[in-house]
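Next up, a chain.

===
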Amino acid sequence: MDFSWVNILHQSAFVVLKVLVEPFFWLVVLLVWMQYRRMLKTKEAIYGLQDSPLRVSLIALVYGIIGGILGSFLMIVFGVTINGVGVAWLWIIALVLMLISPRLLCFSYAGGILAIISLVFGYPQVNVPGLMGLVAVLHLVESILILLSGHQDPLPVYVRNPAGRVVGAFNLQKFWPIPLAVMMILLGADQVPGELMKMPEWWPLIRPWDIASDQEAMYHILPVVAALGYGELAITCLPRERTKRSASHLAGYSVILLGLAVVASHNPQLAIFPALFSALGHELVVFLGRREELQGRPRFVPPSTGVMVLDVIKGSPAHLAGIRSGDVIHSVGGQPVNSRYELSWVLDFMGSSFMLELSNETGETRFVRVNREPGSPLGEITVPEPGDAPNVDFVMGSPLKKFLQRFFRKH
């Protein structure tokens, strides 16, 4: 079979779709569904709003398949193989890190630590460029998925910022099941079932260390299952803006790590650089995102006049009237409002149709007509006002620390 990008994409998609019949893939889908069910229970507990975990899980499944095809294509293009990357060691280190802090359950940290241990001590023997290439491609896929769907269905919350002020925010959390096509090296052509595709001379970009430059190797594409997750708070901006920034930061990190992996595959003495950048670069991405949100100016706080909307319930009169996050309600039926209490009081006297005066972030004023059943709620969620308490706490403690605290408390 002659080489072509279309054939590569076709092979990637074909193997990815084969993953969909694997029982283990649907076990991962079940785990994703359980995560979304937990999130939606939190939403119901705070606002009394019900949503279907099946709906959001199916949406995540579709995006996961798209991400899997893109990721598989990139892995084949760069020549990332699973030979010698130490997947078992990678998971062991990742799970140990999770005991220290849940946010450390990420292959960027585990992969960097595994690569450094291998380079310094010589055990376990790991193909560092291949491992770093795998980490880079997975994070590049994650950045694409964040850009495409990370802003969807955000949860409006009240949180306390480092200054001690309760502000409005959006909790952005996503999980995706990822069906992937990865390559495994087979040295003999007789070991490869099916038709062979002749790859170009420049391929693979990430050359395995145990394959000589003049040695021919055969590659077999295998189906595997992965999962990706994303979690962040949007305090200084709308969810769409936050996910664009996060996706760009993560994509930049992934491209740099991928470039370092390519260089290290041809110059083994430089392998320490992608190993260090894997963890440190990712930590820099996390630090920049947190600094932007925690030290930046809060977006969802009470304005000098009017009542700011944090979010609106889909399908509610407010949503159908075109009211959106960040809009400020100045008057209802000509009656000025400057607090949540005043807004609620005036709405009680409004009939089935009335006008709202709004302004957006730029100060542009507009009027919208609201139609509702008499006495039914408007469907707005306003920003926190003085005296309001946070309704969620996002401080993630160490599971190991919690276990030790419970143990010593009993003894």
Notes: The chain has eleven helices and nine strands. The chain has two domains: 5-295, 307-382. The two ends are 68 Å apart (CA to CA).
